[in-house]
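Lecture notes, unit on protein representations.

Consider one protein chain, 363 amino acids long.
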Amino acid sequence: MNKTIALIPGDGIGPDVVTEAVHVLDAVAQKFGHTFTYKNVIAGGAAIDKWGNPLPKDQLDVCLNADAVLLGAVGGPKWDDVDPSIRPEKALLGLRGGMKVYANLRPAVMFKQLKAACPLKDEVVGDGLDILIVRELTGGIYFGERGTSADGRTAWDTEKYTWEEIERIVRIGFESAQKRRKILCVVDKANILNSSRLWRKVAESVKGGYPDVTLNYLYIDNASMQLVRNPKQFDVIATSNMFGDILSDEASQITGSIGMLASASLGDGTGPGLYEPIHGTAPDIAGKDLANPLATILSAAMLLRYSFKLEKEAKAVENAVEQVLDDGWRTGDIAGDAAAVRAAGRLVGTKKMGELVVGYLTK
């Protein structure tokens, strides 16, 4: 298989973690007989510094002409004072809209080896957590009509959804649930919002095509509470852009390992998918060989699975990560008792962690 991958290292620790993910992809290519060609893209703060634009059209075009896109992270306090119209985060919205990746799949998995890092009680999390959040990514309040009055004393943002935008997310939720525990929860605010009532109407209209999946609903406030009260009740959650933004960050925190969690942003399959870790740019540790590359490596595994349909290769990467954790190797963010990990000679940096995954992968 010959495929082109656009790489967006981005800002902060982005270049550090993307480098290690590429090493893993190269090891996959060598082991399984594939050829991956990489095209570098500058976006986010780095693009503001270079061109005054977080996502120039020619950089987006490189992504559109690739088979998949792997992103590190964008943003940081360095660009806090730039004009809001060119903030680094605008690159993310530009990528999602330009690539037409409307569904964000974010697994919130508590790795059993890192259970001690979970902030919830053992009786709540049991033997682990595995929740998939399907977030609508190109509609809703983040893309709706907005404005500020001339006197600056009034501002508005509009939550707007079409039937078609909702249906494609709900169907992905049902299809994902069919491959898991067959439970789908649609999260909304249907007691208040017209747009949420449309979400429920759409879900009811399509549930007949998935008789093996149990469908239920929760209001966003109750869902936020239930995630910490009884997270094991959840299998797949489908929800709007803003609610998904909130819930996916909450779900990642209860796993205790934000540096371990990957994501995939997908469209209708006619264009490339966008893959990225959920963590930020952590500029304070950028370039210091301290960042955890495993979330980006696991994002690369999702890239192999969803964009290239290479399930065996994706599982090989995930198994290598599991073996690294089984053997006690840790970066600082997941070390727990760092002194004990250091004493055992298992505390490592970004580069060594990437090398370890490659080593287990190629055994």
